[in-house]
Amino acid sequence: MSKKHIHFELQGEQNEVGVIRLTRGAKRNALNDGLILSLRDLFEKMPKSVRAAVIDGEGDHFCAGLDLSELQERDASQGVFHSRMWHAALECVQYGPVPVIAALHGAVVGGGLELASACHIRVADDTTFYALPEGTRGIFVGGGGAVRIPRLIGTARMTDMMLTGRVYNAQDGERIGMAQYLVPEGKAFEKALELATRIAGNAPMTNYALTHVLPRIADQPADQGFMTEAMMAAIAQSAPEAKDRVRAFLEGRAAKVQKS
User: 204-250 is classed in which CATH architecture?
Assistant: First the structure.
């Protein structure tokens, strides 16, 4: 299935992995409103068979940020509503129906980093570089980056990137928390697909707890977080699939954790 600037396909024996590819390769997959709204629509209408998703970028770059050629003059109220539209769309990625893995390569810049930060796991290859040039262009992030990116790398590092135009390479980006995995050039999608396939085999309620509940626990005061954790643990372990998996482990039918 293809929407404007996006290609979507199903992979896996039971179509359990959805692959979403940005297809504005000639524009380094720069984001415009049409692409953002296509992402929103795709996550809102994700096929029921899908249990994990991968977001990739066509060509040499994951996403080079906002397409400045489409930047419009807006008054303050129009700017607020436009930013909130992007927030709603990327909320569908972060709090959508399935865990999402970003396969990063080349530019992960501006809005591209905002999109990557809305995903749950980020896999970068050696060509990846990260930047937030908005500060040097007289604008500010508007796609949720001011909330999500400091949670990955800290407020001080994001402030530095925007004030100075600092660019992080793949190795330093992984070191500070931009990505959880670093792989050789050209291998990001392969690794992301491997992870998505593994995640798709988890119990659905556990995946839901990790993508929807754990981030909210992290934002709660400790006493509230403990209570939310207790309730989520009770709900997850009461699911029939969870009971089957625990029984399989106790009966020696499930693999034990091994040192990698």
Answer: Orthogonal Bundle (1.10)
State residue 166's pLDDT score: 97
- What's the burial of 4, exposed, middle or buried (CB within 10 Å: 0-12/13-18/19+)? exposed
The active-site residue out of 134, 174, 194, 241 is 134
In this structure, the strands spanning 2-3 and 6-11 are: antiparallel
User: What are the boundaries of each domain within the chain?
Assistant: 2-200, 204-250
How many angstroms separate the CA atoms of 211 and 149, rounded?
Answer: 16
Active site residue: 13, 16, 73, 114, which one?
Answer: 114
Ranges under pLDDT 50 in the chain: none
Distance CA 105, CA 21 (A): 13
Selection from 33, 103, 95, 25 nearest residue 59 by Cα? 25
pTM listed for this prediction:
0.93
Assigned CATH for 2-200:
3.90.226.10
Task: Give how far the C-alpha of residue 142 lies from the chain's centroid of Cα atoms, to the nearest Å.
Answer: 17
114 is catalytic: yes
Active site annotation includes 174: no
